[in-house]
């Protein structure tokens, strides 16, 4: 007599952004008895990091890390992977080009699914049955103009190397059957055929699952879809004469008012307490300007002043955004990155002294 | 003093100045190098770490022993659970 063999517990890695779609995709898999673990990639452009960066203590308790929060709701493990270094090449040289702004969505998807593919390959090699059988995403055909079209779905599968181990439970019925479907690990009939920008089917499914608290990112999952942000990034490359960035650069683009009075220097001026605290952490890297004679913002100087006149001009601009803007003069402190500081007293700039064209973003 | 019993050793991880989700990522990567039962104190200047690191611990089966604030800094003391996540 042969021993009854236990069916193998099939396992999947899900790309979890923190939004509703990936949450639903995981839930659909769980309903079918698949054990899911989540992976979330940190690119440096995530909206997540921003809201956290400037959240105030206590007041913004609800500004949670959505990926972690989703994992907790779904009862899955979550791996957060820092891909910010490797991701630069995706942003700087996207093979498939950009979307409406500097968002390289298609290359980004391919890159992330490829990372997940490497993970499941590694896990299959080292963990055997405790490894992962396939990858799940919350993609929906037609949801995003550039990256989530019917034609792009096979491109992502192929170029990522995931091939038919990539399953999109929310729109699988519109696509050829994948390995998990063909092998009967999941039941294709119980997958979905969502398409287009209409969110109603997702809402209905969320309701069906009893999910009523979820993040709804408007434009996309990252700052690169944001026009103002993309303009700031393009400005940075122009000012430096090269397309290049460090993590600190792209973090700073998320915060403050950015003014470029001269091609060779830019001011990053905080607009509220949270941004103030955030910029504070960068004073050891940049020359900074603060007001002394009245309350005011903190400004970082990205670049260098070529002469005293420019320094005075920058001080006057910062004074304009301080509580002393209507006073005859304001005293400010200019502190270099190394801590050496001096004070200047200037007449605050008038609105007309700060042309709109200086606004970056 | 340096006996075999190292269970009282508290490892430390400095994530000062890093912003979400980096403190969580650093914590995750450090835990992968530790053993079940090891203790780790994570120090952060992002107040959000007080939410995020405990959430990460709950999800991944690690125990939060203590959290607190000291001036501008926050800390989380955790005990590594059964699976340190070293697979990845
Ligand atoms: S919005 Fe950003 S994170 Fe999302 S796919 Fe596009 S580039 Fe990638």
TrEMBL record, chain A:
Domain NFACT protein RNA binding per the UniProt entry, residue ranges: 256-358
Keywords: Methyltransferase, Transferase
Segments traversing the membrane: none
Gene3D superfamilies: HUPs
Pfam families for this protein: NFACT-R_2, tRNA_Me_trans
Record keyword Ribosomal protein present: no
One GO MF term: methyltransferase activity
Highest taxon of the lineage: Bacteria
Keyword Transferase in record: yes
One record GO biological process: methylation
Listed name of the protein: tRNA (5-methylaminomethyl-2-thiouridylate)-methyltransferase
Record organism: Alcanivorax nanhaiticus
Top-level taxonomy: Bacteria, Pseudomonadati, Pseudomonadota, Gammaproteobacteria, Oceanospirillales
């Amino acid at each position: 007599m042969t021993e009854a063999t236990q069916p193998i517990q099939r396992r999947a890695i899900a790309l979890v952004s923190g939004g509703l779609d990936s949450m639903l995709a995981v839930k659909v898999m769980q309903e079918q008895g698949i054990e899911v673990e989540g992976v979330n990639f940190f690119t440096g452009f995530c909206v997540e990091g921003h809201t956290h960066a400037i959240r105030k203590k206590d007041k913004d308790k609800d500004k949670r890390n959505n990926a972690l929060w989703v994992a907790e709701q779904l009862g899955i493990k979550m791996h957060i992977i820092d891909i910010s270094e490797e991701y630069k090449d995706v942003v700087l040289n996207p093979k498939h080009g950009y979307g409406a702004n500097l968002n390289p969505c298609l290359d980004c998807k391919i890159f992330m699914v490829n990372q997940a593919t490497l993970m499941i390959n590694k896990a299959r090699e080292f963990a055997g049955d405790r490894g992962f059988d396939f990858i799940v995403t919350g993609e929906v055909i037609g949801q995003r103009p550039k990256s989530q079209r019917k034609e792009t779905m096979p491109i992502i599968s192929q170029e990522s190397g995931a091939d038919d181990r990539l399953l999109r439970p929310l729109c699988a019925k519109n696509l050829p059957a994948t390995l998990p479907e063909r092998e009967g690990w999941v039941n294709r009939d119980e997958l979905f055929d969502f398409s287009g920008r209409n969110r109603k089917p997702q809402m209905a499914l969320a309701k069906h699952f009893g999910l009523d608290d979820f993040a709804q990112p408007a434009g996309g999952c990252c700052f690169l879809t944001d026009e103002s942000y993309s303009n700031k990034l393009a400005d940075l490359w122009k000012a430096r004469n090269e397309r290049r960035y460090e993590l600190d650069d792209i973090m700073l683009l998320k915060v403050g008012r950015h003014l470029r009075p001269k091609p060779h220097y830019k001011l990053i001026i905080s607009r509220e307490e949270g941004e103030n605290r955030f910029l504070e952490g960068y004073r050891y890297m940049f020359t900074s300007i603060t007001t002394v004679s009245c309350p005011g913002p903190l400004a970082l100087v990205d670049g260098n002043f070529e002469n005293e006149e420019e320094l005075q001009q920058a001080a006057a601009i910062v004074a304009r955004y301080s509580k002393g803007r209507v006073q005859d003069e304001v005293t400010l402190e200019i502190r270099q990155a190394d801590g050496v500081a001096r004070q200047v007293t200037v007449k605050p700039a008038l609105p007309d002294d700060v042309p709109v064209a200086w606004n970056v973003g | 003093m340096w006996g075999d019993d190292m269970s009282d050793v508290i490892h430390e991880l400095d994530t000062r100045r890093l912003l979400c989700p980096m403190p969580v990522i650093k914590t995750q990567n450090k835990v992968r190098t530790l053993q079940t039962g090891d203790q780790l104190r994570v120090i952060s200047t992002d107040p959000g770490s007080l939410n995020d690191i405990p959430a990460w611990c709950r999800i991944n089966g690690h125990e939060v022993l203590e959290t607190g604030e000291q001036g501008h800094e926050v800390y989380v003391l955790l005990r590594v659970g059964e699976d340190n996540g070293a697979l990845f």
